[in-house]
């Protein structure tokens, strides 16, 4: 089989869809107005921002005035969590999250824990899932906020968000979910879910990097991270990045169209082919995360007696782009905090590989990966000190 270029790191970032790029380009030069200006150029830019807001809102079942554009998923997480804490009534200083969150959430909780908040970090099961029972038992009279991710970026497990949010709603506790990996890939309707805030990121759904959004249910009060001109309903000051906002809005429309066309079914079939092929052809390999309650495009495995970094480098040499752990921490020598929280030992966790599919992934791509992956593992095991 000929050498191919196979990109399987869509959880780190997707490509920018051609439709998205074409929609963005005019707003760099021809339609360059500041959306806060009153003249024709400004009004044109404002219309573009408003249309993008409507598209993002439609993707998750929100109203446009419940969508705040930000600089990305990490910014949205910080705005949701810090903004809620800084607006909290007296006596509400307890916040809850899980052990497998993205560092944009975990590190924010740790930072707040050093500044007067009481922090509870919930354990997860062997699949990386938070149990509703553990959340219910952790909520106290002084609990203000719970933040649990919709779906895990490293292992693809989807949390029981409806149950978790329902518990929070019953107890009068704010519920935020980081849905960066889920938005645009599985159906989400925030007006049917007991969710108060939800984080999205453009570059995980065929849009540009550097722009995200936060859904904030009507009536929720947050203190802004940035003060200035009062843009984005006073919650994220600074002149809007119009080209990227337009790109996110167009990406939302692309994602909605892909869903309606059955893309999730197509890609989940390829995902299962990949997982079955890896575990059947590579001894001592196993799937991480929940086998069925997982994102349709997400495959993740551990290979025992080997380090994921070696696999990543040799797969790259073969023209295959994968990651070991999350993209934000793949440069670290420490094993994944997600896998450790799921109960894996350090040596096994070091053998993690994440392969995430996208709209360009084909059956031939999967066949190529299954041809190259087993001999790479065999070669590395011959060199490995682990026996």
- CATH top level class name of the largest domain: Alpha Beta
What is the terminal separation in angstroms?
31 Å
* Estimated share of beta-strand residues: 5-15%
Mean pLDDT: 95
Number of domains: 2
Helical content stands at 25-40%
Number of beta-strand segments: 12
What structural class do helix, strand and pairing data support?
alpha/beta
Strand order of the largest sheet: 2-8-7-6-5-3-4
How many DSSP helices? 12
CATH homology superfamily name of the largest domain: Type I PLP-dependent aspartate aminotransferase-like (Major domain)
Overall body shape? globular
Furnish the topology, listing elements before pairings.
Blueprint: E1 6-7, H1 18-24, H2 40-60, E2 67-70, H3 73-86, E3 94-98, H4 103-113, E4 118-122, H5 132-138, E5 143-147, H6 161-171, E6 174-178, E7 197-201, E8 212-216, H7 242-260, H8 263-281, E9 285-287, E10 298-303, H9 308-317, E11 320-321, H10 337-341, H11 346-349, E12 352-356, H12 363-383
Helix pairs in contact: 1-7, 2-7, 3-4, 8-12, 9-12
């Amino acid at each position: 089989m000929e050498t191919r270029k196979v990109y399987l790191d869509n959880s780190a970032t997707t490509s920018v869809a051609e439709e998205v790029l074409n929609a963005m380009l005019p707003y760099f030069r021809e339609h360059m107005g500041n959306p806060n200006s009153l003249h024709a150029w400004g009004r044109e830019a404002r219309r573009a921002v408003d249309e993008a807001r409507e598209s993002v809102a439609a993707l998750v079942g929100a109203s446009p005035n419940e969508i705040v554009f930000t600089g990305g998923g990490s910014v949205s997480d910080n705005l949701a969590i810090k903004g809620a804490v800084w607006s909290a009534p007296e006596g509400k200083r307890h916040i809850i999250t899980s052990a497998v969150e993205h560092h944009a959430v975990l590190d924010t909780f740790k930072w707040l824990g050093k500044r007067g908040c009481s922090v509870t970090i919930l354990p997860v099961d062997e699949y990386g899932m938070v149990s509703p029972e553990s959340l219910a038992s952790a909520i106290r009279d002084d609990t203000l906020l719970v933040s649990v991710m919709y779906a895990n970026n490293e292992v693809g497990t989807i949390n029981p968000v409806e149950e978790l949010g329902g518990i929070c709603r019953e107890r009068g506790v704010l519920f935020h979910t980081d849905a960066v990996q889920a938005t645009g890939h599985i159906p989400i309707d925030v007006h049917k879910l007991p969710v108060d805030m939800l984080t999205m990121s453009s570059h995980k759904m065929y849009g540009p990097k550097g722009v995200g959004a936060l859904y904030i249910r009507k009536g929720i009060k947050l203190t802004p991270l940035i003060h200035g001109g009062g843009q984005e309903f006073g919650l994220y000051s600074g002149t809007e990045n119009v080209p990227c906002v337009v790109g996110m809005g167009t990406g939302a429309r692309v994602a909605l169209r892909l869903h309606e066309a059955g893309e999730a079914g197509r890609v989940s079939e390829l995902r299962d082919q990949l997982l079955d092929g890896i575990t059947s052809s590579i001894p001592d390999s196993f799937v991480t995360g929940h086998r069925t309650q997982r994102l349709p495009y997400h495959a993740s495995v551990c290979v025992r007696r080997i380090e994921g970094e070696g696999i990543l480098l040799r797969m790259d040499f073969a023209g295959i782009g994968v990651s070991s752990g999350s993209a934000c921490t793949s440069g670290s020598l420490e094993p994944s905090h997600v896998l450790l929280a799921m109960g894996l030992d350090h040596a096994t966790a070091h053998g993690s590989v994440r392969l995430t599919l996208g709209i360009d992934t084909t059956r031939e791509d999967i066949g190529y990966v299954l041809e190259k992956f087993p001999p790479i593992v065999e070669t590395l095991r011959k060199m490995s000190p682990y026996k």
